[in-house]
Amino acid sequence: MAIEDMRQPVLLEHASRLVNHGPTVLVSSEHAGQRNVMAAAWSMPVEFTPPRIAVVIDKRTVTADRVRASGALALNVPGRALADVTFTVGSVSARDLPPDVDKFAYYGIETFQGPMLGLPLVSGCAAWMECRVIREAHTEEAYDTWFVEVISALADTRVFENGRWSMREDNAALHTLHHLGAGRFSLAGPPIASRLLEPAQRRL
Amino acid sequence: MAIEDMRQPVLLEHASRLVNHGPTVLVSSEHAGQRNVMAAAWSMPVEFTPPRIAVVIDKRTVTADRVRASGALALNVPGRALADVTFTVGSVSARDLPPDVDKFAYYGIETFQGPMLGLPLVSGCAAWMECRVIREAHTEEAYDTWFVEVISALADTRVFENGRWSMREDNAALHTLHHLGAGRFSLAGPPIASRLLEPAQRRL
User: The whole model's pTM is what?
Assistant: First the structure.
């Protein structure tokens, strides 16, 4: 894959908007030189300022081990061009690969270094966030739910600029993936506007 | 609104799929005869079996008061036809309405009774779930994050059947809403399939 991202920093106050609409994310991690990446359909913001996100990571995964050890993770927001990569890294465990090969190398997934923590970020995504884990032992154990705080955020300006997503025909490869199950995804379509209703009484 | 839903029960083992793809939901609640409804862009499954969901409800809202008192809430999954309703109940607090009028009545939002708890469910949605709250004082306080367990689930069979979402041209009014911010929504598009990648070595 030779992908030229058009990456620009995103204000931290806008970071939660990167996952506000419920896209599947790729969770990348690194500890002691060992990298990994998995898909997570289940994440959500819990706060805009500071930008905090909850993400479900099964405690038995290699990713959970790395994140527990390093106290950090990155959230990558893939678009349509990375649907197969997303399904694959969500289906195959690092434990099933040959020794000394990580998923990035095994599947030829290109990365670049995160600006704050140097975490491996997946090239070709629509957006990226480096995050510090806020350790919450109970929710990690009971619900596989991890709380993180975003400390750096980037987006591809072709689809997210000035704090706003803009899905259009000309950036279809970057439309975010919303997992329906079993490798089937809905793509996020072009924005529609909504309006405040008048009280029903006035309409009668 | 005169809406004829085509509602059928959803197996509880499929309930988490109703929000797997990150739609904005309507949180409806009732306590001591007082009803309310608000929009929540932030929710996610945390478990398939039993079906458990995390949802962010600001602790200062009327909904949080009702949910705390009743120990229950309903999650309604609106589609495109309810975009204005969703934006409106997410923007206007019950506290700003005239006394003795709830948001349903004020805005002419039709409801039906949930099958297990009798909670007010919003007519015209794509799916509905009645849920019991699993009280988690710390995450409610620290992150406005509530954990619930689904005890009944329904869906409109025109868009969700046999455990699967199916967004098509002929059910566009039921395509789920994914909040981009400020009342702008992406709609979930028709499913695309993905495939498992071969190792990069074999592709070289």
Answer: 0.96
Q: Does A103 touch chain B (CB under 8 A)?
A: no
Window 40-59 of B, Cβ < 8 Å to A: 41-47, 52, 54, 56
The separation between the first and the last C-alpha atoms of chain A, rounded to the nearest angstrom, is 58
User: What's B140's domain CATH number?
Assistant: 2.30.110.10
- Give the pLDDT mean for B173-192: 97
A87 phi, psi to nearest 5 deg: -65, -40
Nearest to A20 among B180, B193, B201 (CB): B180
B145-170 tens-digit pLDDT: 999 999 999 999 999 999 999 999 99
A105 min Cα distance to partner chain B (Å): 8
In a domain, A131, yes or no: yes
Residues in B closer than 8 angstroms to A202, CB to CB, are: none
In a domain, B2, yes or no: no
Residue A151 parent element (H or E)? strand A145-156
ipTM of the complex: 0.96
Number of C-alpha atoms within 13 angstroms, CB side, residue B14? 17
Domain span at residue B136 reads 7-203
A1 in any annotated domain:
no
Q: What pLDDT is attached to residue A68?
A: 97
Touching A: B residues 173-192, CB under 8 Å: 176, 178-181, 183-192
Q: Identify whether A2 is part of a domain.
A: no
Confidence grade of residue A201 (pLDDT, cut at 50, 70, 90): low
pLDDT over 70 at B47, yes or no: yes
Distance of CA A163 to CAs A80, A154, A171, A175, B178, Å? 21, 11, 17, 16, 16
Domain count, chain A: 1
List Cα–Cα distances, B33 to A40, B36, B93, B104, B107, in angstroms.
39, 10, 18, 13, 18
- Which chain A residues are within 8 Å of B22, Cβ to Cβ? 21-24, 41, 44, 178
Per-residue confidence (pLDDT) for residue A202, from 0 to 100 = 55
Inspect the interface and report whether the beta carbons of B45 and A42 lie closer than 8 Å. Answer: yes
Share above pLDDT 70 across residues of chain A, in percent, rounded to a whole number: 96
